[in-house]
Design a protein that fits this description.
The chain is mainly β. It is built from two helices and 20 strands. The radius of gyration is 18 Å and the shape is globular.
Length: about 260
């Protein structure tokens, strides 16, 4: 597994970035269970599976807003319900709100945009009502890798256990009251989130860099580790990349 060394990820300005000394690896792994992630979902007793595409290594699904289908990325590292680009918002019937939202991008640029509310969003047979989000934006000096016309975050899917299956290109929404979730693709190596991180998708990981806390983020196209962490460990990167011989999560070593 190769990790690219570069800056840490974006953060909203109105939140506290916990664990400022932790390394942040932004990863996407097949069969990822996210037991988090919109309070506004319609009730359902059965899991719902929808197809996804991998666009620049991002998991992208189609949602329906009004009579329009919109491709959005699922971003586990985001803090929002939904974020949409200016282009797609111009073609949708949404309620523009007076509030704005401010955040920092991956390079520390301060961005701000208008918030909005969508009456109903459909994902397969699921309906999500009263969904709030904000318009996307990017700095002229830092262009993001495209992955759909915006993204949905953990706040959008917090009523479900979520299986993101990269191998089969599927995403399954499992209602939290479903007990036999393993029958719906939720199996494999169980890796618990750090209980000291308030439910955030952060796990301890052991590699050639030692033991550190890493962030799971489906909104990152590759694994990322702080350059200073590589330097402090005495390892020599190959340009912008570093390869670890050991990669241990839980009790299992996934190898180089």
């Amino acid at each position: 597994i190769k990790c690219q060394a570069q800056a840490s990820a974006r953060a909203p300005l109105n939140s506290t970035v916990r664990g400022h000394s932790m390394s942040r690896a932004l990863v996407g792994i097949a069969g990822l269970l996210v037991a988090c992630a919109a309070a506004h979902a319609s009730s359902t007793q059965s899991p719902v599976t929808v197809p996804i595409e991998l666009v620049n290594n991002f998991p992208v699904l189609n949602v329906s807003i009004g009579d329009q289908s919109v491709a959005v990325m699922f971003d586990l590292g985001g803090s929002d319900e939904i974020v949409l680009t200016s282009d797609v918002l111009r073609s949708l019937n949404v309620e523009r709100l007076s509030e704005t939202y401010a955040w920092l991008d991956a390079m520390g640029n301060r961005l701000e945009s208008q918030k909005f509310r969508i009456p109903k969003i459909r994902v397969g047979s699921l309906a999500f009502r009263g969904v709030t989000g904000h318009e996307d934006a990017e700095a002229a000096t830092y262009r993001k890798t495209p992955g759909g016309s915006g993204y949905i975050g953990p706040a959008f899917v917090r009523s479900f256990k979520l299986v993101v299956d990269y191998g089969r290109r599927l995403m399954t929404f499992i209602p939290n009251d479903v007990k036999k979730f393993k029958a719906h693709g939720c199996f494999g190596t169980e890796i618990r989130f750090d209980p000291n991180m308030d439910g955030a998708p952060i796990t301890k990981l052991t590699s050639d860099l030692g033991e550190h806390r890493f962030v799971w983020d489906t909104g990152a196209p590759m694994m990322i580790v702080r350059r200073s962490l590589v330097a402090a460990s005495g390892n020599v990167p190959d340009g912008d990349f570093f390869q670890s011989k050991e990669f241990k999560l839980g009790r299992e070593d996934f190898g180089p």
